[in-house]
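Dear colleague,

As promised, here are the two records you asked about, laid out in our usual form so they can be pasted straight into your sheet.

NAME FIELD: protein one
SEQUENCE, THEN STRUCTURE:
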Amino acid sequence: MKHSQTIGFIAVVLAILVCFMPWVFIESKNLTITGFKAEGTRFGRPGMFIVYMGSIAAVLFLIPKIWAKRVNVFLTAMVFAWAVRNYLLLTTCSAGECPKKQIGLFLLLAFSAIIMIMSFLPKIDLSKQQQ
């Protein structure tokens, strides 16, 4: 795919921006959980992992070397797994109360899936071997 690396880079930037959007809303405590703000819960800051690994993946999307593409597949799989983990952890019902899912959580899943798919489709010019 010709533009897979550009699409992957843009998806990483968008996934990092989505960490600032609301992910879930807990009505009983009147809390809005984002990737960086989860006061009143024990979730920590789940968006930090996305930012760190996503930043490394973004750089690797720009490096036209085979080793960078191989490492990027591993890193983007970790980013996708972390996004799925966040979805499962943050949307789990507790004590009979289910948090309301916000658009940011769904966008995070979508962008992390796009990131992982684009890492599977690198554009690498292989040298032609002489026969």
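NAME FIELD: protein two
SEQUENCE, THEN STRUCTURE:
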Amino acid sequence: MEPCTQKNRYLKSRAAQADYFRLACENAADGILVQDLNAKTLWANQAYADIHNLDLNNIIGRSPLEYALPKDKTPTKEEIQDFRYDPDDPKWNGFELVKNQRPDGSEFWNQISISFVKNSDGAENAIVVCRDVTEQVTQENQLRKIGYELEHQASHDSLTGIPNRAAFLAFISQEMAAPDRAAVGLLHIDLDNSKAINDTHGHSGGDAVLRHTANIIQGLIRDSDLVARVGGDEFVVVCPLVNNPDFLTRFSSQLLNTLAEPFEWNGRKLQVEASIGAAVSQSRYDTPEDLLVRSDFALYEAKHNGRYQVVTYDTALRDQHAFQTRRERELADAIDGGNLDFFFQPQLCLRTGEIIGMETLVRWIHPSDGLIEPNDFLTLVRDLGLLGVMDLSAMDAALAEKRRLNLAGFDDIGVAFNASPELLAHPDFINRLVWAVEAGEIDRSQITIEVLETTNFGDATHKASHAAIIHDLRHAGFGVHLDDFGIGFAGLSHLAALDVSGVKIDRGLVSNLLNDTTCQKIVRKIIELSNDLGLIVTAEGVEDALTATALQEMGCSVIQGYWLSKPMPSENLIGWIENQDRHTHPLRA
């Protein structure tokens, strides 16, 4: 009896396990399928039927190859009949993601895993477990798409759709690092008339020009080249495999000519004008930075020489570049070390014949090249970003000279210094000026700040900012004169709006006063209007007595120029004034 009892218990245990297995499979959330090795379905749970939107009766005895795949992926009957699992084939290991289709035509992503087991008869069966992962796949695809978009945004310009500076730097670094590479060319393209287009047609017109430019360049470059937008109106083209330097010149000329062809935007004709600097790597030791510097210098020369042209970096330009680089370094050292010199040019009142002021002028006395005129180094100062620093030095020199004048008894002689936009934008400019005049016990009305007329024009933000600074200077008791007046954009119409105390007529108008009737009319009108507004009128660049007399007859207040005196160093100034004081000036009233 005992062996029989054990057997019964064993059978009951096996039956119980089978029941548990059946219950688990029937109620599992995943679809479960039992197949023979020919993929015929022997058993399926309800979850499988639900996933496929089929009745269980339509599943048993059939292969999923008959109904589960999209129509264009469904095998032929012969292929289905010939199908057979190979349990030893490793391709059935792991998970497989398959796109399936339901009877209503809707598609879904099915995650499938297959394992092989032997039944009680010793025959092998395939156990298929599947899960609808469509939502998960959709989310992953969306995240992947977002990732692609973010990657694209990080490497492409949002306005034009072409690569940006980061992509350009990565590309040129890769090309120049390639072993046994050919020469790499670089074009630096700057649009000459973008500001004018923005001013005339607004930013939407400017954007249209940028997109048009990008499209034109993309249409002309080779497959191996890359175009990128690297600044507001700046583009670069990297040209690998440049075997002939003339290629860049020919391509650049073609590009300029194509860009110059007018295109239509909102019913208007727009035209792109550009300058191009070209450079080619000269050895395998060149770096991307070397090529960038050379193309940038070539672009500078193109714009400096009149714009709308191509300049290629060659031997002559290399020597010029080396000279300018050395000059920039020497100039920066001179400014940082306080080694610039400041000269002073007297100003004469035409009503009294007395010296009433001095303009502070910067000079650079080079250790080996001697005196270098401002026109030969001021552009370099601006490019170095040191204009504001130099102007602060000029301010300090002017105030120091005013203290010397006061100590010598010339309290009524004022001093003037130039203030660039960079100095006007300095947050501590006015506070520093006020502190310095108070410390030196200087009368604020004896200090005049000269600002270029063109400084006060441009975009609305800069206009408002500079107008506010001028107002604050005037409110603090300082004089403010518009320098180089008469050559700017608006001139007379803005005199009443700006809180200035005087104007300084541009030397170009003054030098042609005696032989150009147009200049005479302009100068006369400036003087008349300024006098009506109660402004001091100074004429600079007076070279002879006839010009001085003509200005006096027109009602000009003050003159300055070589006829009176050349700019002089501080040590000569007091003696010169004393000598003038002992003699009657020919224009003394």
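A couple of things worth noting about protein two: The two ends are 151 Å apart (CA to CA). The CA atoms of residues 357 and 504 lie 13 Å apart.

Best,
R.
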